[in-house]
């Protein structure tokens, strides 16, 4: 594991342990925060942690990846309740200078196919295919999720070999189809509007998007595993984006 990956894992774990040493990985003069609950800078990070009930936080990071100046992680939290989160950290001159995240409440139990939101493979393979896999995932999100060309699903996804970790959807194209039909019956909208970022390391690619779910303005973080030019596995979180107001502790926006 690279030094930057270790630093991110240690920093996240410090939320649980209270260890202050990993705070040294953050640039004390420049830390731009995109979590609306925290203000910029080390002081903002510290204030958020201090607001937690003593001894309540739990942190476990099963996946961490690196793409240029970015490190992105997939973490199980108990942080004001059980959650699953993706975190993105940007490094500059050896220090962390910016942070984005996306958190979703963690349901109890498994999804219709018996998977949790974080189980499955955790180590990137095919490191020489990072760029090709990022291009494939961006094309899938743009083609199918943004433009709604559902008939193209089979061009990107590995049929019923597709493993799904969304807590409400089963494996395979059949599981996805059933979920979409159920949402349509209930009048639940699912719409991706804008792709903000595509990050990857080998077989793992994270897309960061904005759109609407159930009539709410949300951010979609989708982690895909790609094998032989097909998407074979998917993890995600969806978080509502509050309107700018008193709830925002910074003015940097979600993306």
UniProtKB/TrEMBL annotation:
Gene3D superfamilies: 3.10.450.50. InterPro entries: NTF2-like_dom_sf. It comes from the Bacteria. This is Putative SnoaL-like aldol condensation-catalyzing enzyme. It comes from Acidipila rosea.
């Amino acid at each position: 594991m690279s030094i930057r990956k270790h630093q991110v894992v240690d920093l996240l774990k410090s939320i649980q342990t209270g260890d202050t040493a990993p705070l040294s990985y953050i640039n004390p003069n420049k830390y731009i925060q995109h979590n609306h609950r925290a203000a910029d800078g080390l002081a903002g990070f510290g204030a958020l942690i201090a607001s937690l009930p003593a001894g309540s936080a739990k942190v476990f990071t099963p996946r961490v990846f690196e793409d240029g100046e970015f490190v992105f992680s997939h973490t199980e939290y108990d942080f004001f309740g059980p959650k699953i989160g993706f975190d993105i950290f940007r490094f500059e001159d050896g220090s962390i200078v910016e942070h984005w995240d996306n958190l979703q409440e963690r349901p109890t139990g498994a999804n219709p196919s018996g998977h949790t939101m974080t189980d499955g493979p955790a180590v990137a393979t095919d490191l020489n295919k990072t760029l090709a896999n990022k291009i494939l995932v961006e094309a899938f999100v743009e083609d199918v999720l943004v433009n709604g060309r559902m008939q193209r699903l089979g061009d990107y996804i590995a049929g019923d070999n597709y493993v799904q970790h969304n807590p409400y959807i089963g494996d395979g194209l059949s599981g996805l189809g059933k979920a979409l039909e159920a949402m349509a019956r209930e009048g639940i909208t699912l719409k991706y509007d804008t792709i903000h970022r595509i990050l990857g390391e080998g077989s793992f690619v994270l897309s960061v998007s904005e759109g609407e779910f159930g009539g709410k303005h949300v951010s979609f973080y989708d982690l895909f595993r790609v094998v032989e030019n097909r998407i074979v596995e998917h993890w995600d979180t969806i978080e509502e984006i509050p309107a700018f107001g008193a709830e925002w502790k910074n003015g940097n926006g979600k993306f």
